[in-house]
Amino acid sequence: GDSVTQMEGPVTLSEEAFLTINCTYTATGYPSLFWYVQYPGEGLQLLLKATKADDKGSNKGFEATYRKETTSFHLEKGSVQVSDSAVYFCALSDGPNAGGTSYGKLTFGQGTILTVHP
Amino acid sequence: ETGVTQSPTHLIKTRGQQVTLRCSSQSGHNTVSWYQQALGQGPQFIFQYYREEENGRGNFPPRFSGLQFPNYSSELNVNALELDDSALYLCASSNTGRSSYEQYFGPGTRLTVT
Q1: Which of A63, A105, B5, B26 has the fewest beta carbons closer than 10 A?
Q2: CA–CA separation, A26 vs A6, rounded Å?
Q3: Is omega for the bond preceding A10 within 30 degrees of 0, making it cis?
Q4: Are the beta carbons of B111 and B13 closer than 8 angstroms?
Q5: Strands A23-26, A3-6: parallel, antiparallel or unpaired by DSSP?
Q6: Choice between B61 and B26, residue whose per-residue pLDDT is larger
Q7: CA proximity to A109, closest of A29, A42, A21
Q8: Is the pLDDT of residue A95 over 90?
Q9: Is A118 in contact with A112 (CB distance < 8 Å)?
Q10: What's phi and psi for A82, nearest 5 deg?
């Protein structure tokens, strides 16, 4: 079945440092890929997405590129802020080619806790 | 545009009891999905409702059931609660027909089973 693997956390950085959170996936068909962010005590917010190979999703300074050859969707940000401290989840959605029965179920990684210090 | 809302925010139940959680989808969305997020884990897909029918189910037992209403709102019912059912329950809405299957989440209901 589909699966998503994220780098082990937690990740602790100083403000303005470069961030990379690794994400790899296993899926049949052509999934869409997402990064969601969860702030303490809140639900999930969609951060960015990519729907096909070589697409780059970006939002709020975060970027991720859909790499089909390496089955990866690593999250990057050039300069993190204290306000970026949260849990980040990589996820995939089975696409319309998944055996004709796709319905957009999201499969999540285990999450990576990011803490940014001033 | 109104976002996804869930009620109640928190709930404490005793093992063996039954619980109903509610979700109102984002305006313009016709599909609701439910997820269970145990502490320190990623969300796990429970099931999805589209046009008032179950449209896919994850690896959860039949005591997890749901409903979708004509206004696209939804309920999640859990019977015979077990301690392991303690989790954050997330509802997500989407618009089936869009190829990206982008889902928008509510704030969740924190269920504690004692």
Answers
A1: B5
A2: 12
A3: yes
A4: yes
A5: antiparallel
A6: B61
A7: A21
A8: no
A9: no
A10: -55, -35
